[in-house]
Each structure stands twice: as C-alpha cells, then as structure tokens.
C-alpha cells in the first residue's frame, strides 16, 4: 500500500463565485448553497466544506479498502471463474439461458448489497414460436444519501462466441490461471469489468456499512449483439437517469504495455439509406426484364460513385471536418502494439488498407472518419437464385463520425453528392436519401472534473500519469447511445488493451492488471465521493429530503463508531449457515420495513452456480 | 360446326425408310414395325396403317365432341366460376387451404374420369412452427392403350394476388360475365387453361367411353411463386415421364387481336453469383472500419462495371449470339397491342427503356437477352441499420438467354469480363464467379410434327393460319425446366394475350376465345391421336403388352357399337341422385377389380365447393 501515499490528492476547489447557477455543465461545482434548491433545510446546500481531516479520513478508508481488496483477491478470482464458466454467448439464441444465469448471479450479488433491483424483459426480434426465455436487463440502485454523488455503472455479462477449436490454448469457458495471466472468455471484456466493480463495492461495504457515493447499475446480456432492446428502456425509464451525475464505462483503450490510455472522446455515426424506386412493386424478371430500369443497377452505380478504387470516400469536405491529430498523438500511435500480420492471420484477410506503415494504418483506424457499406434492403438476399426484380431497394452505408464532424453537415454533404451523381448518371429511378440512425461524436475536456478524478485514480494505482488523448477516439456505441439519450458526462475507465485480439482467441489479462482495475474502481468511488454534490431538487421533487441508507444508519454508526461493521462480522462467520429466523428478502419494490431489510446480514459468500 | 370441314387434314406420312431406328427426335415417325420393340406380338409394331375411313371416322368424332363442348358451355362457365371463387393466392401462405381446395376439386374431377391420381407433398421452406397444411402437387394418368400417343398436360390452379381496391371493376374472386367477356382472377391464366382441358376431356369421354390418346397431368398450386418443390418431383419421379411423347403447356402468346401466335422457342437463363470475400467472418464496423477492404464496395464496383448508364450489358459478345429478328417478326412486333402509358401507370414506373418506339421497346423485351440484378446474399438486408461489415457477400444477377445463346459460352464471357475488371480495379478482396442455376434456351422447328399438329388444330378452330415465330421467344420458366429435365418435345398452346395486363387488374378473356380454347384442346387430342405412336418397350418393360382402358372396354364396345355410352347415359340422368349401391371409388393405387371401377358411372356433375 506504500505506493499510494505520494499520490493522494485533495480535490481542487472552484475559485468562481458560488452564486453562479449550476448549468449542468461538466465543470467543477462550487461548494455552498445551490441555486436550484429552494428547500430551507437542504442538507446539501447547507453542507459544510470538507475539512482536511475529513479528506484524510476518507483517504485512510480508501487505503483500508484497497488492503481488503488485496486480501480478498483469491476469492475474487473464484468469482471471476464462476462468471467465465457460464457460456453466455448472446449471439447464440440457444445459450440465452446461460446468459440469464449470469445475469441472475450478478443481480443476486447486487441485491445482497442492498441494491434495489428492477428487471425488464428485452423483446428481441425472434421467431414466432421461439419459446426460449426472454433476455433481460437489470437496473439496480444503491441510494446512500441525497448529499452524495450518484454514478451509473454500465456492465455487461455476455461474450462473443468462442470454441477451443478456434485456437485456444485452454477451454475458453474454463477459467485458467498461470503465474501472472488470467485466461478465459470475457476476462478482459464485460465479465472482467463487472467482477471488478462487484469486488470494489463489496470491499467498501465490508469495511464501512455504507458506500461513499450512490451507485446505479445497468447490467445487460445483449452487448455483443448491439444491445438489442436496451435503447428502448433508456428512453422509457428516463427518470432512472435524473439524479445520475456521470456514467462509467469500462473500455479497452490501452494501446501499449507501458501505461493505461485515457480516452476523452467517443465516435458518433450516421447511417444512411440510399433508396431507389423504379416501380410500385417487385416485377418478374422474365416478364419485365429489358423493359424497365432496375433500381439495383442504379444503386450499385451510386454506391460505387461514393468511393474510389481504394475505398476512400470521395467527399473530401467530410474528412476535413475531423480534428487534426496532434504530434503527441502520432507518437502514441507509433508506440501502439499492433501486429499487422497477426491481425490478417486471425481474420483471414489478404490485404489491409494503408498497410505501408503501422502508424498510417492505425491512424486511419482510430483518427479518421470511414465509410462502410452494410447491405441492401429489399433485394433478394437469401441463398439460391430468384427471378424477381426488386423495384424498391435501399442500400445501407454508414459513416463513422469523429469530433468535430456533425451529423447535420455530413448528411447535407452526402445528400448533395448523391443528388449530383444522380443527375450525372441520368438515373431513371427515383432517389431518396434517408438518415436512418445517427449520433453525434462527443468529446470532453481533459480538464473536466470527472476526467480529473479518473486521472487521479489512475495515477494513484499505477504510479503513472496515464496517456491522454482526445483525437484517438474510442468507439463504444453503447456509450455514445447513453450520451445521446441522457446527455450525462461519461467516464471511460481504461480496462485492458484495444480489442484487436481480445475478442478472438486466448482472451487474457495479467493478474496484476486485474487487481489494479479493482483498485481503480475503489479509487474512483473515493475520488467521486470527494467531488461536491449538488442538490437535485430541480429534477426530483424534494430530493434533498430523501432518506437514504446513510441517513438510516447514522444513529447506529454514531453510537458504535468503533464497532466492527455488519459486513466484517459476517465475513468472519461466513461458514455459519444462515439462520432460519432471518427474514426472507422481500420484493424490493414492495419493501415495507426498511430497517429490517437494512439490518439483514450481508453474506459475502457467492451463490453457487449450477455446476 | 361448318367451319371445320374445309380444314380437316390427314396426317402426313413419312417418306423415309421405315427401317431407320427411332432416335427420339421430334420428327415424324414411320408407320410400321419399330426397331426398338422386339416383342413378337407388339400391337404397335404390327398395327395396320390407318385407312381413310379410320381418319374420316375420327374426324366425325371430333365434330361430335366439339358440338358437345358447345352444348355444355353454360356448365363449363359454372365450372370456371367454381374455380375462380377459390382464392388460391399462392403468394399468401394463409390462403394455402384455398389453393388446396382448388387442387382437390380438380383432382376429384380427374379421378372421376378414371385418372390414376398420385399426390405429393411440397416441402416449401416455411417457419418452424407453421402448422398450415403443406401444398401438394398432383400427378394423374389416364392410360387408354399402349398403342396410343401419350401427352403430359401441365396445369396450375394458383393465381397472383388481387384486391378489389387495386382497380378491379368487379370483385376479382367473383366470376363476372358480361355479353362477351369473362372476368375474374385466373380466367386467362392457370384456372382458365385447366378448365378448358377438363371440359375437352369430359366431352371426349361423354361421347366415347375412352380417349383417343393417353393423357397425363401434372397439376400444381405453386406456379406463381416459382413452382417451389415441383422440380424435386420432376427429378425424382422420372419414370412418370418415360412414356410421355410430348408436354403441353398453355401460354399467353397472342400479341395482337387478329390471330393466335404460336411460339416455337423458350427462353433459358443463367443465374450468376459474384462472390467477394474479404475476411473469414463478418467484422464489427466500429472496430475494423477503415482498416480492411470491404467486399460490399468491390461488389458494387464490379456490378456497376457490367452495365452502362442505360443498363445495357457491356459484353457485346453475349448479345451477338442471339438470332437476328426476321423482317416478318418485326412486322409482327409492330402489330402488337401494347400501351406504354398503361404499362407505366399500372406499375408506377416513371421511365421505360427504349421507349422511343413501341417496336424497339417490345423487341428489346421479347427478342433480346437482358440482364437483371436481383440482390446480394450475405449483406445486411433487414430494416433498420447495422454496424456489421459483411466480409463475404455474393451479388446475384441473371441473364435471360435466347436461342442461340448457350449457358457455357455466356458463363465463360461473364467470368472473363469480371476477372479482367477485377484486375483493372485492383480489388483487394477475392473474386469467385458461381453459376447458380442455368437452363439453355430451346427452340424447335416450325415443321416438327407436334408443331404441325398444333397448327392444324389452330387452323381448324380459328379458320386462320396462326402467326409463327421462333425469335419472339416465350418466357415460361416452368416449361424450360420440364424441357431441361425430361428432354421431351414441348407444345405451347396459345391461350390468351401476352400477360402485360392479365396478371394485374380486370383479368378477362372473351367468351368466344374461351370456347375456342376448349375446341383447341379437343382438336389437339384428335390431331395427336392421328400421329403414329411408337412402342416404348425400350424404356418400359413389356410396354406393348400392357392393358389400358381401351383394351378392357374393347369386347364391350364391339358388342354394343351403337349403344349410347356410359357417359352420355349419365348425362341424361344426372339429376338422379347417385345410387347408394354404387361402389365407393377405391384408392387407385390399391385398385383390385379394374372392371368394377371401369364401369362405375361417370358423374359429370361438379362437386360442390364450399360456398
């Protein structure tokens, strides 16, 4: 724990006038009364400035928590093993039950830590007579106190398909550990990140019956298949996000082995539909062939006009909007670990674009806007052959957007270009350009308060300043979607290496790195607890008068300041069987006697998975 | 019936040596002993030449049959009404029961006429939990005598979708008749043709307990959706075709109101798959975008290179193989009835190709090879948007082939062209050209014996020589498929106008034309009965010793030469209810006592459909 001492930093405080109303921006908040709350007894408005003693006490607590994390590390690995063993491959509909098992396991762990649980069914598109269970998404909420910051953690428990035959050295769904590496499908993607958070929160609760911040969770099992159905609940359950201060995603952003890299920007996208219509309905090839102009032919011509031989988009104005890459960022890209040969080998690719230099290649991938063609709706796309001549087809292509591209401008450019080409080609079928889906790219300052909190955590854990970059953009569509719908600040926690290989075979993470990621979680909880909170009376009625777990426990903890906490006690007696008189955990939505439930013992022992 | 007299022609006889073995060609067969049959008592080999008296007797019979057809015409229209009323829309899976009703109705009529019935289930692709009944195909066989010719009639009973709202003047599925036109979905396509054959055969049977030829039927209800599943049974049930002399299709080939047009050629087709493969599996757009070359982009470029702005195939060699159109055929095309305006209006088309002159336009449609693009397999073709980058896609296009194009040569040209373009474009993804499905075009002489039989029938019914053309090619894929699989001669009976409108709204046929089509069927039966038959001992064991209905009835008919036939008798007493003691019609496959079944009365009264 020595390594931490030199890096403990106190939160910076705003020098601006405290009378300035809170604008919802990502900047530092002033201490002192918030303009938004008109409540006379607002605990948050009337909260005293934290003293140095407070800060030192909380830093000391963090050190204890981290020590507990180290002590429990063996158990953590058993936890990870439990999750890895479940073959939660979301792309395989037959394995949906395994994914649900993983979700239930995680949900039960959260529920034991006094999270309120909300489960929603995902109505993914499926066959009419498919009787397999519906996938679910879990929303969870630990409400400690209105005077604390609230973070939302996004976690997912599904993985990409994996088979031993693909070239794994061990069974992908059997957790395998050698001296310093952890192997198994999911260890450096969703499952690994989710287990880190679980351990961090459990460690906090064990040492201190309460958490220093409010935590919400969204846990899903459809991440690998585009988070089907989640967007619906993000839009419908907007009240869940009202009191959230920032959203935390784990992401794989390390680009070299030296130190973690912290991203401060997210890609956006614009999906276009290029619709050509030649007639009101599909015609029979035998009858109408040679008589009518075919939209498929025109679509191919237009799609072809968008790019040159080298697949470069022929609208320079769109590329010009992208922020130039800085010299430091070029240096970072140069240092990136990437084997062109291994990449090609893995996917069976013959040639890569820009393969002359590694930096050019990676720059094009990470720092350039690119176009992809996905398919054509309305055409004959099954196996075999058909005589049908589709008369209304829509080609789908998308452009990955980087800061400072905007959906609006790109849309205008694309539409103008296609209309001009249509004129040039004298197409006889009708063109319509649709914007099917879009999300602006986003970028936040390296000096935003959440970025700084993360930098402090990383520095404490790794004893290094992380690499910082705004122009090496992270592509994490689910984060962009959260940002678009909730407009909340985003924290991208560097978890592992860029996912060039991780998704494929021998997914692995160094043991030390995994431990540090848990400490990164505890550290982030600590750092966020130090940031000033604001009263959310402007969005939630009488927010500052709400009673959280902290308020309930207060008389209790004040009386027994040095008493071992409930959780620590339970850890020592965890071999004792749960008492029969322990009340069954009631449905959180109908919970009547909060005190009963609060004092229910926290059993750290994992639920056994079906082995 | 006067109109027929002047046109009765006796069959021509071959002047060639009768010792020449039968080669299976379409030419006239010699009378006299066949080389193929080594049977000592072969009735066919030892058959005497038909005398003039025989011919006159059979012509007189045809005249009686045609008189009966006229007399029964009102009942025929009621029959047609029964079929039109059934909404046998094969494109609508929910209406499959209606299609099956139509098929059962037809099957029962055939069974009553002593056809042997074989039913086969069509395993059309459908949803896993679809419990609707399977569509079926009916094979039927009336075997009169081994010494008679055998024809196979293809009939279908399904129709294209139709709704009153589409612009029909009457309900599409309610048969409507005004002074000289018959309206209703199906009257000038499958149902109309099928009812014509039913009436023609019933008229023959009524006047003469037996038919002058052997008739086989294939009746299906999936014609409008590409005859799904039928090809399987054509290939599996090859023994059904062994003794078939020719296959008769009704087709819509009239191109003007003046006279029927007789086609002597069928289009072929070549379906190509242009496969481009960039990597071993689909990649995620967000991760691999900008890094790899995308097959979709290359496919669009290659497809675009195949045609110019005006959608004309850029491989002149393919077009040069097509037989030139004769001056007489140009004149025929000039006389064609076709309203460009109505056509565009109907399908909501803005511009047609070659729309400067009608003749150019129709020539391009009927006499030119054309290319159509159908779709792309493996791409994202559903609604909405996707980030997936398909890495192995196959574009599908087809070329309609006309005589004298051949699949092999066209394939070679296409493959060579695409490989050259690939080199030019320097595509980095791998090209493969597949020939997915193909059928050579076919053409038969205007002086082939079956063509001549048809010309004689047409001339007798219409008092006109039909328009003949080999280069205005008929596109009837199911006929091409039969030709490809069975290699039997084809007769295309001109039934109605080219299907520019018929498939769409207000499908109709002149009443007189419908009546003449029935007479065309009876006439064709007569003409084919006059053609010399050959013994099929070379393909079917002891064929000439088989006992058909004619052999069974012979002692009976010889004794009572002037006795009214069973069928005529039944017509007079058809208001009498079927007697109870009448034996139930046994399963034709297990029929024991053939004589019992043969003498079962033939009830002409239709089965009532569910009204």
Automatic annotation (TrEMBL), chains A, B:
Name this polypeptide is given: Blast:Cytosolic non-specific dipeptidase
Residue stretches of biased makeup (Basic residues): 1-18
InterPro entries: Cyt/Met_Dipeptidase, Peptidase_M20
Single biological process term from Gene Ontology: proteolysis
Keyword annotations from UniProtKB, A to Z: Hydrolase, Metal-binding, Protease
Transmembrane portions of the chain: none
UniProt-listed Pfam families: Peptidase_M20 (PF01546)
Molecular functions per Gene Ontology: metal ion binding; peptidase activity
Organism: Drosophila guanche
Disordered as annotated region, ranges: 1-29, 569-593
């Amino acid at each position: 724990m020595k390594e931490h001492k030199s890096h403990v930093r106190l939160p910076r405080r705003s020098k601006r006038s405290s009378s300035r109303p809170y604008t919802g921006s990502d900047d530092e908040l002033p201490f002192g009364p918030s303009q938004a709350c008109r409540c006379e007894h607002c605990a948050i408005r009337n909260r005293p400035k934290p003293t140095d003693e407070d800060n030192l006490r909380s830093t000391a607590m963090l050190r204890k928590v981290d020590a507990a994390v180290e002590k429990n590390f063996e158990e953590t690995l058993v936890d990870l093993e439990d999750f890895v063993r479940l073959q939660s491959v979301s792309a395989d509909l037959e394995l949906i039950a395994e994914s649900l098992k993983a979700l239930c396991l995680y949900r039960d762990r959260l529920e034991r830590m006094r999270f309120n649980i909300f489960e929603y069914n995902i109505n993914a598109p499926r066959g009419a007579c498919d009787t397999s269970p519906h996938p679910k998404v879990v929303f969870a909420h630990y409400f400690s106190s209105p005077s604390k910051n609230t973070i939302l953690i996004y976690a997912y428990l599904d993985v990409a398909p994996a088979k031993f035959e693909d070239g794994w050295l061990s069974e992908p769904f059997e957790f395998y550990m050698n001296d310093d590496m952890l192997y198994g499908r999911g260890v450096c993607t969703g499952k690994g990140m989710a287990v880190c958070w679980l351990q961090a929160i459990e460690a906090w609760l064990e040492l201190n019956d309460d958490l220093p911040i409010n935590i919400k969770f969204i846990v899903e099992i459809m991440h690998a298949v585009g988070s089907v159905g989640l967007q619906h609940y993000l839009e419908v359950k907007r009240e869940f996000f009202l009191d959230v201060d920032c959203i935390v995603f784990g992401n794989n952003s390390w680009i070299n082995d030296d130190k973690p890299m912290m991203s401060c920007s997210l890609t956006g996208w614009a999906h276009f539909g290029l619709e050509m219509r030649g007639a009101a309905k599909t015609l029979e090839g035998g009858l109408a062939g040679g008589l009518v102009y075919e939209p498929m032919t025109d679509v191919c011509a237009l799609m072809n006009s968008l790019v040159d031989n080298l697949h470069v988009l022929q609208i320079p104005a769109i590329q010009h909007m992208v922020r130039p890459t800085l010299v430091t960022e070029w240096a970072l890209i140069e240092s990136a670990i990437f084997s062109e040969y291994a990449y090609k080998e893995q996917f069976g690719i013959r040639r890569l674009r820009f393969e002359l230099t590694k930096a050019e290649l990676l720059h094009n991938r990470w720092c350039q806007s690119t176009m992809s063609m996905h398919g054509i709706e309305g055409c004959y796309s099954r196996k075999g052959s058909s005589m049908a001549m589709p008369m209304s087809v829509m080609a789908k292509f998308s452009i990955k957007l980087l800061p400072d591209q905007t959906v609006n401008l790109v849309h205008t450019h694309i539409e103008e270009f296609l209309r001009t080409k249509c004129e040039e080609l004298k197409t006889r079928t009708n063109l319509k350009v649709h914007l099917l889906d879009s999300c602006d790219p986003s970028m936040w300052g390296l000096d935003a308060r959440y970025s700084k909190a993360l930098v402090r955590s990383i520095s404490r854990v790794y004893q290094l300043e992380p690499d910082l970059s705004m122009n090496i953009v992270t592509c994490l569509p689910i984060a962009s979607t959260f940002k678009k719908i909730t407009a909340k600040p985003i924290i991208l926690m560097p978890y592992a290496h860029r996912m060039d290989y991780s998704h494929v075979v021998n997914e692995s993470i160094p043991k030390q790195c995994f431990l540090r990621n848990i400490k990164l979680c505890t550290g982030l909880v600590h750092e966020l607890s130090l940031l000033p909170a604001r009263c959310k009376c402007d969005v939630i009625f009488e927010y500052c008068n709400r009673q959280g777990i902290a308020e309930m426990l207060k008389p209790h903890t004040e009386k027994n300041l040095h008493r071992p906490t409930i959780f620590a006690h339970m850890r020592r007696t965890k071999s004792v069987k749960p008492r029969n008189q322990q009340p069954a955990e009631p449905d959180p939505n109908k919970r009547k006697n909060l005190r009963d439930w609060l004092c229910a013992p926290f059993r750290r022992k994992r639920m056994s998975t079906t082995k």
